[in-house]
Amino acid sequence: MLARCGLGVGSLALTALLADEGRLCGRDNTPLDPKKLTGKAKSLILLFMGGGPSQVDTFDPKPLLSKLNGQSVPEEIARGIPKVARAPLTGLLGSPYTFKKYGQSGLPVSDLFPHVGACADDICVIRSCRHDSPIHAPAEYIATTGSAIGDRPSVGAWLHYGLGSETRDLPGYVVMKAGDTGRPAAWSNGFLPARHQGIVCGAAGVPNVAMPAGVSSRARAAQLDLLGELNRRHAAGHPGDTGLDARVRSFELAARMQIAAPEAFDLARELPATKQLYGLDDEDTAEFGGLCLIARRLVERGVRIVQLRHGGWDAHESLKKNHTPQARQTDKPIAGLLQDLKRTELLDSTLVVWGGEFGRTPTAENPGSPSPGRNHSPSGYSVWFAGGGVKGGQAIGATDEVGYAAVERPVSPHDLHATLLHAFGIDQHALYYVHDNRKELVTVNGGEVIAGVFK
Amino acid sequence: MRITYPVAVVFLAAEVASAAEPVDFRTDIYPILHDHCFRCHQGADAKSGVRLDIRTEVLARVKVGHGGESLLVKLTGGDDPDRVMPPRGGRRLTAKQVALLSEWIDQGVKWDDQLLPPDGKRAGHWAFRAVKRPEVPKRSEWARNPIDAFVAARHRAQGLASAPEADRRTLLRRLSLDLTGLPPAAEEIDSFLADTRPDAYERRVDQLLASPAYGERWGRHWLDIARYADSEGYENDYVRPYAWRYRDYVIRSFNDDKPFDRFVLEQLAGDELTPYSDEHLIATGFLAAARLSSNEEDKARQLNDMYVDIANATGSAFLGLTFNCAQCHAHKFDPITHHDYYRFQGFFLKGMPYGLALRDTTGIKAYEDARPPEYEEVRLRVRAYLDAARGKLNAAARATLSPNQLAAYDTPPDRRTPEQHGLAVEADLKFQYSMAQLEKAIPAADKPTYADLKKKVVAIERKLPDPPQTWGFYSPAGPHRVHVLPMDGFYPPAFDRLTLTRARAFLLPAGDPRRRGPAVEVGWPAVFGPTAKDAVAERPRTTLAKWLTDPTHPLTARVWVNRIWHYHFGRGIVETGGDFGVRGSPPSHPELLDWLAAELMTPTSRAGGGHGAGGPKNKTGDDPHLSQPWSTKHLQRLIVTSATYRQAARNDAAQKRDPDNRWLTRWKPRRLEAEAVRDAMLAVSGELDRAGGGKPEGDENKNTRRAVYQIQKRQKPSAVQVIFDGPAGATESCPVRTTSETPLAALFLLNNDFPLARAKALAVRVRTGAGDDRAKQIDTAFRLALGRLPTVGQRKAVDDYFRKTEGEADQLILLCHTILCTTEFLALE
């Protein structure tokens, strides 16, 4: 051990190395102690809108865009637009949606999101997000891991590594998807140990949690007794082998998870009014509403990170035929989640983040078509934060007059990650992992906390 | 005591005060220089020529004894915003840090030559010096071979004693799992225990090394290093349907004990070797395992990401160095500059990964016999329509370019100015079309004919076997002409023979493929000496491989023997197996490491082997039992027959002082790897399908072949790999796997169909052997799964279990299931 310290590996990393010997979920040997952190957020709900929702049709109103409908991007604006693939400058397309000011703050939200709009005073929109990959997967990786290659740990995995979880009865990092698309790198552990990866849970909850058909609980209990006995005897012959202890305990935890997980995923005992709040009574909103409600239940039970993925926002062919139903499926569930978290006094300790891998071009992909769509655009898009100490009712940063490129306070995905960590009171430079003998940070080689996001 | 205690405190306090806190270079100064100065002021490209990484350079710029007057202190501590160091944007030094620098200069600029060697080239770093065979220490009685002599010497130095030898049953299980990834069958244990010949163990070693299962196990280790996968990764993760040929090549190479220098050469330069052979072309699958985003329209980025992957993997696999950093800036610790990185990348730029036709005559005949005569014609007509459409789209795209862009785009890549490079990369974005876009551009009148033709091609191809091919790396600048097959994807990179042949290496500022810095000469990092320019020009990668495997090369042999050691013992002699650089952990047994490296290159020891099986023997030497150079099996035979390897897991006397087993005072058990978890279950249940090689299996729960033959999809890795820490995404060379213990793994073992199905099969075996006699069943279940009978206590626990489950239907199955979940079953002890 001392030799390791002598190499200049700090105590944080030492803890991480020790943890590598095979510790368990929960909070054993995490490099940071959540109790000592001053951030308000204790858990994260990441609402990832796969495919890329359009900024100018949701949270970033652009009156000039409507005025210039059908025209080319004016030269003085075009000059500032990064030259990436799929970024046409002809055929501007005004938003078919209308914006309305909501709440005391008057934060504008389009009529795609009337319910979320009603929560505007809790929401801080970052309108100047940008990166440079216009392709779904690399962009999703940049958004979730900070690297286009998808080989780094997801921000959720970093949080789990840093803080562990408040529960041992459930996985500390849960991923759920509406629809079956999804890119594993977005919740992967990267170079962190495998126990920090997001666990994809379906309707049945945690994978492998259901006992095999035909095994009675009596038989299972006897099996676990026997297994415990055999393992203890084996461990007794190997004093000092911490890996063995860890594995013995992992079975005890599994047994507990087998009881706790189905309960956490079971919505039967939620009140009808609560279910309604999330839109469970409506066919369109029931699926994502269910995931949002489970997310609240998981956070309530101490799960550190819940990452929900709602795919399908890729409005190439027709913006309206895509975004109208996409928004409808998610608007009420997301608003329900925010209200419910507030009602249960969890909003202050739960950071909710909404956004996609990029936004969409203010120009039409198929100008002149009766149902114009928009292409991918990473040059300026919106992401919002709520809860976890975030100061709601405000918009930070700005895109140009047509909503193409971030021009005021551009924010990188690394900045978003640094900000996300800050909500937990984590200094992005203090959380690191020694991989290949190098100190790796969440924010790779950059990223600053966005000023003004928090109260 | 009470009287002297305060005196001691006073004395200590006085010491601290009077000694003016001697500055420690490693802990006080190096971090300051490293964090605040080295970004600009180190290495050959140092800003303004000011280098702070060489002591003599620092001495030339300061006045020893007068720290406060030195420019270094004045600039770092100054207030003038135009002169302060680090300049704008850099992190300022604290007052305390400035004071430390001053103090350091006052105290004579103390240095640490290990961290920063005097010549600035870090040539002084132990791993960059050529291997010299050290003298073997005097052998103790315990020692069976030279390895033990080195280990015992450390034991003596540390005052530690080795563990006793493990019992033979444990040894055989260890040996089998370690060498083949499979537990020994019950009969094998019986016959081994009954074998009283003095060399029974050595005979068993030779048998296991000669078994095909050995290559499947050790080949898998190499596939970790090679970041092998059956798919391209990134967005679409297209399957590479013939990548498996490389996987089989690796397994074959281990089974044949291909000399490691040859193995390196074939993998790096198989397409350059003469005479041509399919086997060599397949070997280039190492380079071709790079990830590739076929959905990327930005060709400069697409190709650069791929070459970065190739350079990094090569650096990591053979040099044990982390090249990654140097892609954007000079390596902070190792002597790899930004310049070096692109010189190294240059070895690969004239080739690229692609589907390559093999010359295998039987495969070609089968393909040609099955091909209907009209196929070629129909295919060409389809292509003609697409080419015409492409021509139309190209013309439209050209019309949108400015004259400057057009001129840049039309200039061959190697002749573009840096500005033109940027313009051409941008312009190129307009020339990327997906298949759907191409088809849309076919004139309406032709569309029906085209659709018909396309239907025909699809119908023919559905019935046609694939022509014999491999996923390999090929350079058209080399001596052979290889036929390149079409690649899947929205925007696959083109295989352009002319562009590849003319490709040149350029430095990319900050690693940005849109920018182009100066051209660089292809070569290895300058710290390793001058590159053989002419040889590089003729056969670049052959030259690279020959350099790597030259006996004077300091890293290749050391890195490889360390990996072998790591896979046997669960820990390398250099613990950071992927980093032999300045910041890597120093070897626990430096002399042993060097002896092993020397022994790999020039075998002298006979290792108790020589029973005929396994591995080619030295063809030139007089001693028929002497292995040939670079024999991996020779080294392994030495390792597994050593007394060090044969130690028991328990050594209570040494445990406290050697908890990590750094000094090898016992055998440290570890959990089986993902593959061995699967394979061991299938082996004991009697279901293991030993068929080797060929196309990968698509669903791990629906076949019983070994894990190494399951498909390795980067975006959809196998559940067992994900849960048990396999190299799931294969995103980079993986030198060391971690071990996680999570309840999810426990849930998998308890509830997933896979282990339960194995338990069912095992229960059938048990019943076949033991009938309905419960006591016999218990014995048989333990013997089959764990290779031993239950102890009295275990038997009692099992009896308890049967009592508690009286009347349950699957008592025996669940007993077998339980045994498969035990820590003992899942351990490599």
Structural write-up:
The complex is a heterodimer of chains A (455) and B (829). In chain A, a hairpin with a 2-residue loop joins strand 15 (432-435) and strand 16 (438-441). Chain A is built from 13 helices and 16 strands. Chain A has helices at 2-6, 11-20, 63-67, 75-78, 114-117, 136-145, 155-163, 217-236, 242-265, 272-277, 283-300, 319-343, 413-423, and strands spanning 43-49, 99-102, 107-110, 123-129, 173-178, 199-200, 305-310, 350-355, 359-364, 374-377, 381-386, 394-396, 398-399, 406-408, 432-435, 438-441. Chain A is of the alpha/beta class and 455 residues long. In chain A, the strands form five sheets. Chain A has an eight-stranded mixed sheet, with helices on both faces. Chain A has a two-stranded antiparallel sheet with strand order 2-3. Chain B is an all-alpha fold and 829 residues long. Among the domains of chain B are: 4-117, no CATH class; 121-171 and 183-210 and 554-591 and 603-614 and 630-644, no CATH class; 217-358 and 500-548, no CATH class. Chain B is globular. The two termini of chain B are 49 Å apart. Residues 1-19 and 609-621 of chain B have low confidence and may be disordered. Chains A and B meet through helix 6, helix 8 and helix 9 of A and helix 2, strand 4, helix 31, helix 32 and helix 35 of B.
